[in-house]
Structures are given as structure tokens and as C-alpha cells.
Amino acid sequence: MGLHGRNRVFRFLFKKQRQIELLIYSYLDHLRITQRRFSEALKLSLDHNLSGTFVFLTEQTHKFESKADDIREEITNLMYGKALLPESREDIMTLLEEIDAIPRVFEQVLYMIRTQKMLIPDFVIPDIKKLISVSLGSFELTLRQTESLFKRGKGIRALVATIDQNESKCDHIQRRIITSVFDSDLDPFQKLQLKDMISCMGEISDQADRVSKRVNIITMKRRV
User: Fold this and answer.
1) What pLDDT, on the 0 to 100 scale, is given for residue 224?
2) pLDDT confidence tier of residue 6, bands split at 50, 70 and 90
3) 140: number of CA atoms within 13 Å, CB side?
4) What distance in Å separates the CA atoms of residue 124 and residue 193, rounded to the nearest whole number?
5) Taking a C-beta distance cutoff of 8 angstroms, is the pair 13, 83 a contact?
6) Model's pTM, two decimal places?
7) CA 41, CA 31: separation in Å to the nearest integer?
8) Of 133, 139, 143, whose CA–CA distance to 169 is shortest?
9) Model pLDDT, residue 31
């Protein structure tokens, strides 16, 4: 292949790579909207308000998670159209799949509350707010890490340590909530409901930690 031909191939690959990066940024933006709708809906449930607004925000959470899924599918199709080298493609697709597990947890929590008509007892609400605040903070940090990965930014490794610390903090809060639930006089069935919900919420920070470590591995592989 001559120089002109190689330049043409390079321009084609660069264009495809840029197209994928822009789709990834759009995907992350949709995940941020999904997180905001989840947070708004959960706040209503903690206020014992399972009104039409809660139902609407739950459906909005599902809607934007589905839109993000559509964008991820578009990214997949572009990647398997040989827009990237195979090893890079595998790393990125694994990363996006692991990120996508987090908004699915958002949906699971809200539908659990909605379908089981759960009213969360007041004595656990302060700790649940702490658990969610730290978990969503970690989720946002993983999105920032992912953006930094594609923008060749710095600070990814420092965020790994913060997210890991948050995960440990969430585990501690989670155990404290479950202990207080089972030490209470609540109905045994309600205790099990709450345990399942809190365990599901705890998966947000756990998965954020997995995503963070995945981003760090990809970054280190680039240096080899």
C-alpha cells in the first residue's frame, strides 16, 4: 500500500475512533441523567411519598437507562466494524458493560420499592441517605475516570484510591443498617424486604469500585 493509501486508512480509523469517543461521552451523559432521576425518586420514597411523581421518576430512570443502552449498542456495532484494534475493543466493551451494571441497580432499587410498596422506617433513613450519597459520589467519579481515559487525562490512579475508600465506607454503613433493622421490632417479612433493598443499594459502590479498577488496568496497559 502506498503512502496515499496508508494516509486514507489512517484518516478513516481516526474518524471512526473519534465517532466512538463522542458516543461514549453521550452515553456517560445519559447515565448522569439516569442517576439524577434515580436520586430524585429515591428521595421521594424516603419521604414516604410513593405518589405519581415517584412513579414518573422511576419510569424516567428506566427511560434514560434504556437510551444509554441504545447508545452502548451503537458503540458495540461501530467497534465490531473494526473501528479499533481487537484488544482495545475488548477492553472498552468490558468496561462499558461493567459501567452499565450500575444504572441497572438504580432501576432494581426503585422497582423493588414500587412493586413491594415499601415504606422505609424513619430510624434507618439517615444511614440510607449516607449510603446513597457516598455510592452516587463514587458513581460520578467512575464516569469522570472514564472520560479521562478517552481524553488522555491525569488523576485516574488517585480516584481509584478514593473510590476504594468509599466502597469500604459503604460496606460499613450497609452492615450498620442491616444490624439495626434486625435489632428492631419490625415484622420479620419487612426486615427481609429491607435487607434485600439495602444489599441492592450496596452494590452501587461495589460495582463502582470494580469499574474504577478496570479503568486503571486499561490505563496501565497503555504504558506497557
Assistant:
1) 55
2) very low
3) 11
4) 13
5) yes
6) 0.87
7) 15
8) 133
9) 96
Contacts of 181 (CB under 8 A, 6+ apart): 121, 124, 191, 194, 195, 198
Task: Give, in order, the Cα–Cα distances in Å from 213 to each of 43, 60, 133, 142.
Answer: 30, 30, 21, 9
Which amino acid, 133? S
What pLDDT, on a 0 to 100 scale, did the predictor assign at position 15? 65
Contact call for residues 159 and 194 (beta carbons, < 8 A): no
Q: How far is 45 from 162, CA to CA, in rounded Å?
A: 29
Calpha distance 125→178 (Å, rounded): 12
Q: What is the mean pLDDT of residues 61-69?
A: 95
For the chain, list the domains and their CATH numbers: 3-223 (1.20.58.220)
List the grid coordinates of 36.
439524577
Q: Where are the alpha helices (DSSP H) in the chain?
A: 3-46, 52-78, 86-115, 125-150, 156-182, 188-223
Q: Letter for the amino acid at 176?
A: R
Q: What is the mean pLDDT of residues 81-97?
A: 73
